[in-house]
Amino acid sequence: MAGKFAEIPKAGDVVRRDVPTCRLTDRLGEVYERCQAFGWNVCVVVNELNVVLGRLRGEAWKAELQTPVEEVMEKGPSTFRPDVFLETLVKRMLNKKVGSVIITNSDGVLIGILYRKDAEERLSLHPTTSEHV
Questions:
Q1: CB 132 within 8 A of CB 7
Q2: Could you tell me whether strands 52-56 and 43-46 are parallel, antiparallel, or unpaired per DSSP bridges?
Q3: Residue 106, φ and ψ in degrees, nearest 5
Q4: β-strand partners of 44
Q5: pLDDT value at position 32?
Q6: Among 8, 72, 82, 128, which is least packed, fewest CB within 10 Å?
Q7: For residue 85, which of 123, 118, 111, 48 has the smallest C-alpha distance?
Q8: Cα separations (Å) of 103 from 56, 70, 85?
Q9: What's the distance, Cα to Cα, between the start and end of the chain in Å?
Q10: How many whole angstroms separate alpha carbon 35 and alpha carbon 19?
Q11: How much is the pLDDT for 132?
């Protein structure tokens, strides 16, 4: 984005793109081990085109290790676009009491995960906000 909105921090500025992914038919145990090896407690479920189908987190990890991901995933999680103003998104996350959101393009293709703590840190370092425009 250019012009007067170029300096306003957006979701795409702080999204973590290295989020682990898995497929519907993957087994929970294998996915869990992969995620733990890289320090993640969440995994985004995608199809062969990298379109977001669901998410694994929290209670899902307590299922039997041989369970297919499809049976325990959170289906159709909310997603946001990378051009959403960071300040707006943080306010929404605080309001909904969520610590992270999934960022996709308009076709639902995964870009990454935005953690509220990362967004708040970015806003504290660069206080330019959408209210000043």
A1: no
A2: antiparallel
A3: -65, -15
A4: 21, 55
A5: 96
A6: 128
A7: 123
A8: 15, 21, 12
A9: 14
A10: 9
A11: 43
Measure the CA–CA gap between 83 and 89, rounded to whole angstroms: 10
Sort residue 50 into left (φ over 0), alpha (ψ -120 to 50) or beta: left
pLDDT at residue 2 tops 80: no
Q: How many residues does the chain have?
A: 133
Residues 68-87, buried b or exposed e (16+ Cβ, 10 A)? ebeebbeeebebbebebbbb
Q: What are phi and psi of 47, to 5 degrees?
A: -95, -170
Q: Do 14 and 118 form a contact (C-beta atoms < 8 A)? A: yes
pLDDT for 72-98, tens place per residue?
Answer: 999 999 999 999 999 999 999 999 999
